[in-house]
Every structure is written in structure tokens, then in C-alpha cells.
Amino acid sequence: MDVKRLLLLIPLAILAYLLVIQWNQDYGQTSFESTPEITQRDNTPADEGADRDNLTVPSSGAPQGSADEGLPAESASDAASRDFIAVTTDVLDVRIDPYGGDIVFAALPQHEMTLDSERNYVLLSDNATRSYVARSGIQLDGQASRIAFTPERTEYRLGNDEQTLNVDLTADVNGVEITKQLTFERGNYAVDVNYFVANNTDAPVSARFIGQLARDNSPDPSSGVTLGMNSYMGAAYSTPDTRYEKIDFEDIQNSSFQNREAEGGWIAIIQHYFVSAWAPKQNEQNLFYVTTDARDRNVVAFAGPTSSVAAEGEATLGATLYMGPKVQDYLEQVAPNLQLTVDYGWLWFIANPLFWLLDHIQDIVGNWGWSIVLLTVLVKAVLFPLSAKAYKSMARMRKLGPEMQRLKETYGDDRQKMSQEMMKFYQKEKINPLGGCLPIVVQMPVFIALYWMLLESVELRHAPFIFWIQDLSVKDPYFILPILMGVSMFVQQMLNPTPPDPMQAKIMRLLPIIFTFFFLWFPAGLVIYWVVNNIISVAQQYFITKRIEKDPSVGKGMRTK
């Protein structure tokens, strides 16, 4: 009967495997190469004339008599006739709207949209697929609309022998000369945005820098399918009193966020692997706030302090805009605590040193996949004393299983008597019934922290391992790693004592199948960790179990019939 079942299950398993692969090819990975945002690289965003709303500041924090930088509506034809400013460096490819000087498109040449794609990853764009822009403005006395700047030219490119590139936009507002300068640096995702104000009038004027990030509720294009285990997408801010605080888009829509005033700080919009952030001057008092705009986009913003520019005087107002991957070394250079946007969750204090170790291993090995393997080996080695206690306890219970079953059969009708006899048996054989659980519970925080560390690391995106694994950040295309993980989990179960409860035993037998199904969609880098962890655990448990089984002192006091 078992042979007949096996012959039936094998073709069914193969058929299910082929169906899952076909489903993966048809629906598993979302392609973003054909989205309209890509076509905006050399022309204007599709609907950018639909929303020319104000750069607003909450009335409680606005200068007296000027709550907004007003902006009248603009027709789509006027917007379409305007030339956008193209700026290309080694790490950024952006489009700047001269009307306000906002960055309405940002692609990252060092990051592909998908593996082996010729198109760059698009972080900021404004079209029918996604609206996500970085806006900045200056709040100036007597100016009721966004400033229409005049650029020196409409195309800038960082030369091979250049380290910096300045893009200057100029305007005259009622006798006040304004130059908006965006400074790009080689190898740097941070852009310095400065307003140089020259007051050529005979009266003082007040000026205030405003930085905003506006994003709709469209899905995160850099997040894969992990059955609900996706990274956080939303807003965040930091102040000296609050190092890192998330603001869900839902909270923005509900206006449940209270304005904050603090020295320094930053505001950001976070998604899987990438982040955009405004970092104002860290020695100035800034107002942080959230709102929604005319297109119901989520807006996180800051407003710097108001500066008074004397007649015939000058002033400089500015901030730093970061648009790029969540690489901790880059983020630390922009603003304090910005590296916390690499969100490892509540176990960050464990995940951070683990990533530090992984990064240093990669510097030596040169392959992130093998680095994960070696890191897992090192973690298992450090935790071996705890693992050994668990495996010894399970091995002793496995060897003494027949006697425990005999006690259950003898006193099965009297549960109180059975419990008493079992406790005597545990004391005689020096068995701790929780000995196999507690060491594993102690290790779980390390494994969870390692999981989130691997999930959050942009370094694994499009990083190859070996053979068919060419991207550690997405699922195994042939599901070989999840199957190996399930097999290793099954082998490990065979070394464990059989649970006395029949129902519990059936559930335990199903766990490898259930976990294999879950892991089908997990990023390959995470599955590599689990496979290596299971293989090492099987080896450790096997040798400990064999040693316990050969130990004549174990079970010496067992009763015989």
C-alpha cells in the first residue's frame, strides 16, 4: 500500500513543482520595465500640470502674514511647453522642473530596474503609475507663487575629470535676486540645495527654506513577494529627542501627526532598499510637519527658520536632499541617525553587529552568498554551547522514548499518577523536559535579527551567488533552495524524539511541507541562511544523538518488564 501511495505522490509532486514554476514565470515577479515612468527620462512627466499646489507651512509655524508660498493653477499646455533640466552624474540621473526647481524624476544608474535590465532603477517619478517627487522652495515676502527660474542651460553632465557639478537657476522677484543652486558630487547620492538671496531693495525681506517629499499610495516597486513579510514603506523623521520615528501614510491622511520643532533632524520617505530624505542644517531650529496636497499625496516636510535679509544684504538658505539606496555608510554622512532608515526592527542592536560582520566577510570573500554561508557558520559556532544542551536533551528523550511510552500505557487512565511517575523518571534519568526548548528560545532573537538584516540589506539586491542564483534579493527561480530547506528540516525532525501526542506528531510531520511552501517566495539570500543553518544543525544533532545512544550511563536506571 505504501509503494502505491509513493508511486502516486511522486508524479503529483512533480506536477505541482512544474505548476509553481510556471506560475512564477507568469505572475511571480512584477516587471517595471514597461511602466510609463521609464519614458519620462527624456520628456516631461505625464501629468505634472495637474497639480501645481502650494508649498504650505502650518499656520502655527509660518511667518506672520505669510502662511503659504501661494501657487496659482497652471494649464497642461503651459507645462508641456517647458523644458525640463536634465542632470546626469555617475550615480544620479534627474530631471528638474524650472518652475520651482523641484526634482520630478530621479533614476539611479548604479542600480538596474530589474536584473540584467538596461534601464536604471527609478526612485522618483511623476506619471500615471506613480507620483513621487522632491520639492523645495523659498517662502519670500511679497511672493504669491512658485518662482519661475531660468536655467543657464537645460542639460548638465558630470565630466570624467570633474568631482562636482553645480546647476544654477536664477530669478528676480520684485528686486530680490535669487539663485537656486543644486550641487552634485561624484559618487554621492546627496544633493546640496541652496538659495542665495540678494536683496537689492531698500527694505528688509524675510525668507524661509521649505523642503517637501510628496508620494502617492502606489505600491513599492522594489519590494518582492514574501507573503506579508515586506519591508516598511512610509514616512519617518528624526529629532534629537526622537532618533527614529515612523509615520504611516494612514496617519498622514488622518492628520494624526503633531508638528515638531527641533534643532537639526531630518524627514524621509522609506521603501524597500531605497530612501529619499531632506536633511536641514543641523544647527538650526526647524519645523517638521505632514500634510496632503491637492492630489491627495502624502507630504512630509520641514521648514527652516525665518531669516531677515536686510536692504542691500545677502543670505544663504539651504538643506541636503538624499535620493538613493539605504547604504549605512552613505546615510551616516548626510545626517545623524539617517542610517536608522535601514530598519532592522526592534532587534536592531543584534542585527547591526551581524551586518558589520557580514560586510567584513564580504570584503574578504567578494561574494555576498558565500558571506551569508560563512556568517551562518560563525553564528552557529558561537551558539553551539546552547544548541548542544538542546540536542543532548532531545537525544536523551529519544533514547528513553520506549520507557516513557511504557509509563504512558501503564498509567494512561490515571493522569495524576502518570505525571508523578514521569517526574520521578525525569529526576532519575536527569532529564529536563524543557531542556530542548529553552536553548532554542534563547537563540531565536539572533535568528530573527539575522532574518531582518538580510531582508533589509540593499547590498544583496542583484548580487549573484552561484549557478542559477544570480540575485540574492529575489526568490529562487527553480525553488531548489526551498526544497533543500524542507528536506533538511525533515531530516532534522527524524533525529528528534517523536511527540507522545499523536495529533502533535502529525502536525510536526507537516511542518517541513508548510515551511517549504512559505519559503518558495522568500529571497534566496534568506533561504541560503536557513538551509545552511539546518544542515549544520542536523550535523550537530546527529553526532550528539549518536554519542548519547552509545553512552551506557543514559537509561541505566530504566525499568524493564
Q: What is the percent of helical residues?
A: 25-40%
Low-confidence stretches: 1-8, 25-52, 60-81
**For the residues shown, what is the average pLDDT?**
80
- SSE class: alpha+beta
Largest sheet: 11 strands, mixed
Instruction: For the record, give the distance between the C-alpha atoms at the N and C termini, rounded to a whole number.
Output: 34 Å
- Which range does the strand content fall in? 15-25%
Q: Tell me the Rg in angstroms.
A: 30 Å
Number of strands: 22
Instruction: Choose one word for the global shape.
Output: elongated
Task: Work out the helix count.
Answer: 13
Give a verbal description of the structure.
The chain is α+β, with helices and mostly antiparallel strands and 561 residues long. It has 13 helices and 22 strands. Strands 3, 4, 5, 6, 7, 9, 13, 16, 19, 20 and 21 form an 11-stranded mixed beta sheet that branches. A 9-stranded antiparallel beta sheet has the order 8-10-11-12-22-18-17-14-15. Strand 5 and strand 6 (120-126) form a beta hairpin. Helix 7 packs across helix 10. The longest helix is centred in the N-terminal third of the chain and has 27 residues, at 2-28. It is elongated, with a radius of gyration of 30 Å. It starts with a helix and ends in an 11-residue tail after the last helix.
Features:
single chain; about 550 residues; alpha+beta; 9-stranded antiparallel sheet; 13 helices; disordered N terminus
